[in-house]
Amino acid sequence: MASVTRRNTKNGERRYDVRYRDSDGKVHTETKRTLRDAKHTASTVDADKLRGAWIDPRNASRTFRQVADDWLGSNVAKRASTYARDESILRVHLLPELADSRIGKVNPARVRGLVDAWSCRFEARTVRRMYGVLRAVFAFAVESSVIVASPCRGVKLPAVEPIKRHVVTADELGRLADALGPDYALMPYLGAMLGLRWGEVAGLRVGRVDLLGRTVTVSEQVTRGLKGTSYSGRRSRPRGDGRWPSPRRSPTCLLRTLPDAASPRPTRARCSSLPQTATCWSMRTTGTESGSLPASQRASAP
Questions:
Q1: Separation CA 79–CA 85 (nearest Å)
Q2: Helix boundaries (H) for the chain
Q3: Which of 82, 259, 289, 299 has the smallest number of CB atoms closer than 10 Å to its CB?
Q4: At a CB cut-off of 8 Å and minimum separation 6, what does 115 contact?
C-alpha cells in the first residue's frame, strides 16, 4: 500500500511524499504540493498495482529515439531487407519529428497531425508503411511497460487506390524475352509463368533447376540490406516445398545461358552484366539504360 508523509521544506512550505514499492520491492517516491494530490496519487498507484497496470512513471520520460532504438534491435529474426526499410523510415521520417520528444508526451492528436502531413506529401501506400513503423514502436513501448497506452489509435489512414496493371499476353512475353537477349530471356518467363518475384528469380541457383524433370525449386532470393547492398538469403514467403513445373522454354534458355548446369552458383552469376538489384532490372526492362531503348519498347509491349 502507498503511504503519504508530510514534511516541511527549508523555506517552511509543506510537501507530501507518496511512497510505495513496485513488484520488485524497489521504493518509489513522488512529491506533491497538496494532501489531496498526494492521496489521489496513492489511490491511483494502489489501484494500478492491483490491476497489474502500474508502470514506473520515469519510463515515460524516455525519448522516442531511445525507445525506437530498443525496438529496432529487439527482433533478431527480422530480415535484413525489413530492418533496412524500418531503419530508413525511422531515420528519414520519424526521428526528425519525434526524436527528442518524451515517449509519454506523444498524444493521438500529434500522431494524427503527422499522418495528415505525410498524406499531403506521399502516396497512400508510403503513408501506411511509415505509420506501421510508428505504431510498432509505440506497441513495443506498451509491451515494455514504458507507457500505458499507445497514441496510435483513432487514426484514419488514406485509402489505397488499386493499381491497374497490364496483363502480358504470350506474344508480348515472347517478344520481351527476345528483346532482353539470351542472358535475360529466362527471367521474364519464370516471373510471368510461375508468379515469382524479381528477387526469387535473381536468386535462383542452377542446382535448383531439374532440366530432365522440368521443375524449379525456389529456396533463395536476392534482397536488399542496409545502404542498398544486395545479398542472397532464404525465401521470405514459403509456399509448400517451393517447387514448380518449369515453363516449356526454360530448359532451352537455361542451356543457352548456363552451359555448366552442375554449377552451384546463382543463375545471375553466369553473366557479369546482369542487374544486381530490382531497380537496375527495372531500368533495363522499362527504363532507360546507357542511352538505349528499354526492352519493353523494343518489344512493343505496353
A1: 10
A2: 35-51, 64-72, 80-89, 95-98, 108-119, 124-143, 170-180, 186-194, 198-202, 250-257, 278-285, 295-298
A3: 259
A4: 127, 131, 155, 156, 157
Is the distance from CB of 265 to CB of 141 less than 8 angstroms?
A: no
Structure-block grid coordinates of residue 222: 536476392
**Distance between alpha carbon 253 and the CA centroid of its chain, in Å?**
35
Q: Strands across the sheet with 14-21, in order?
A: 3-8, 14-21, 27-32
Cell of 86: 524500418
Look up residue 6 and give its three cell numbers: 508530510
pLDDT score for 210? 76
Q: Is the pTM of this model over 0.70?
A: no
Amino acid at residue number 49: K
Q: What is the pLDDT of residues 138-162, one digit of tens each?
A: 999 998 888 888 999 889 999 988 8
The CA distance from 143 to 204, in Å, is: 40
User: For cell 552469376, what's the residue?
Assistant: 269
Q: What is the pLDDT of residues 88-122, one digit of tens each?
A: 999 999 999 999 999 989 999 999 999 999 999 99
